[in-house]
Specification:
By secondary structure, the protein is α+β, with helices and mostly antiparallel strands. It is 36% helix and 23% strand. Strands 1-2-4-3 form a four-stranded mixed β-sheet.
Length: 122
């Protein structure tokens, strides 16, 4: 017994109303996500408002046609000694900022003289 799709679809009574509603909502959501710049809003970007650096110091390094922003933070032992025994270079991700964490991460190294250099992406 062979049945062609043209005879089998849509069913004799039509597509049930709930299925049509689900398909319509799915198409509208897909169109919203793809064409309404929603993906741009969902991708995490670092904030731009001023933050309290909690003791970190901002340094600017010139390169090419721009400026690279580095935040340095020293542990209390490094501040007391006047120099650090260990230097850590940290690259912060797309949704984070170095000014927020450089000083706090330097203190996380317990009783060591540490200086953290955190870089914000240009």
């Amino acid at each position: 017994m062979t049945t062609s799709l043209t005879k089998a679809w849509p069913p004799q009574g039509g597509v049930p109303r709930l299925i049509r509603l689900v398909i319509t909502v799915a198409i509208l959501l897909f169109a919203l996500v793809m064409f309404a710049h929603l993906p741009d809003q969902l991708i995490l970007f670092p904030s731009t408002q001023p933050l309290n650096p909690h003791g970190a110091t901002r340094r600017a390094l010139s390169f090419d046609h721009g400026e690279l922003e580095i935040w340095t933070g020293q542990s209390q032992l490094a501040q007391q000694q006047g120099s650090a025994d260990v230097f850590i270079l940290r690259f912060y991700g797309n949704a984070d900022r170095a000014d927020r964490w450089a000083a706090a991460e330097a203190e996380m190294w317990n009783e060591r003289a540490v200086e953290v250099w955190g870089m914000n992406y240009p």
